[in-house]
Every structure is written in C-alpha cells, then in structure tokens.
Design a protein that fits this description.
The chain is of the alpha/beta class. The protein is built from seven helices and five strands; from the N terminus they run H-E-H-H-H-E-H-E-H-E-H-E. The protein starts with 9 loop residues before the first helix and ends with a strand.
Length: about 190
C-alpha cells in the first residue's frame, strides 16, 4: 500500500478511515489571530517581550511571520475568495471594556484586548475584505462562546482549512474542537 504523504501512517493504522478531498464548495478558510496583539512587531507580544528585556527572542517569530505566514495566509484567503468560499478571521477581543467576559485562562495570563484597543485589529498584510467574517473570541478555542459552529452550519460548511498563529494554543484548540463536532479539518 502506498501512503499519501499528507496522511502519514494513520491510513496504515486505520485503513478504513478516509478523508474527503478538499471541496471548496463545502469549505471555509479560518484564519486564527492574525491581529496586532499576536503578530505586530511594535505591539502586543513583541512589546511585552521588549519590556521584559527578551525582545530578541521574538525576532525569529517575526521573521517567519513576514516571510511565510503573512504572504501564504493572504494567498490562501485570495484563493478562497476567488472560489466563492467563506473566509473567516478570529481575533482575541473582549466585548467589555474591563474584560470581565474573558475566559479564566486569559484572565490568568493577563490577556485582555478591549473593544477599542488597536491590538484587536487584523494586520494590513492579511486584512479582511468586505464579505469576510471577523469573529471575536475570549478563549483559545474559537468555537467557545462565539457562535462559530452555527455560522459554519448556516454557511453549509463541513470542511475547514485552518491557519494562523499560536499553533500550540489557539489553532490547536480550535482544530480539535472542529474535528470533534464533525468538520473535516486541514491545518496549513
């Protein structure tokens, strides 16, 4: 048996498993947290690292954003738009000025982006277009407390292509939830 490189050994272990090919008529692109808080060199995480005297540790991350993440995310978004498929952004942003609606994890981290805070803005390199959706969230998992699942169901989406930042936290939490509620998920 030849194992396609995108499926690794999983097909060998579970040969009955099958994943449908990407169908842009049934798919949406989900771009996670490409906002100033997480990706702008003059703000958010970068500014915090500078204040702590460890700004140089963020340089490789910033370089990767500029070299790979921004251009590839923008190209994916353009491809989905050209196909007439939904493009959905998530961003960390509270509905309240005081952040009282944040998750416990965000409270413990001291992570708060008020409704009018520029750190909540998606960066221009990957900015949403008129018909793109932007969903605010106060947890790592974009499905918790946001209505994302219902929005996807209303759009008749059953496949998600997901990219973004903080893979070990926000992307991972969202992807696992999506798979558990029945979406076919591809992580870029």
């Amino acid at each position: 048996m030849t194992v396609p490189p995108d499926r690794g050994g999983l097909v060998e272990v579970y040969p009955q498993a099958s994943w449908p090919p990407l169908d842009l008529d049934a798919a949406a692109l989900l771009l996670i947290d490409l906002q100033r808080l997480c990706v702008a060199r003059d703000s958010g995480m970068f500014a915090r690292a500078e204040a702590l005297g460890i700004g140089e540790r963020m340089a490789p991350y910033g370089d990767r954003l500029e070299r790979l993440v921004f251009p590839n995310s923008a190209a994916l978004a353009e491809s989905f738009r050209a196909a007439g498929s939904p493009v959905i952004y998530t961003r960390i942003r509270s509905a309240t000025q005081d952040g009282s609606d944040r998750s416990g994890a965000h409270v413990r981290l001291g992570l708060h982006v008020a409704p009018d805070d520029p750190d909540g803005n998606i960066v221009p390199e990957v900015a949403p277009r008129t018909d793109d959706l932007v969903i605010d969230k106060t947890t790592s998992d974009a499905f918790i407390g946001t209505g994302l699942e219902q929005t996807l169901r209303d759009l008749e989406v059953d496949q998600l292509v997901v990219c973004g930042v903080l893979t070990n936290e926000c992307v991972s939490s969202t992807v696992r939830h999506a798979a558990d509620v029945g979406f076919t998920v591809t992580v870029v």
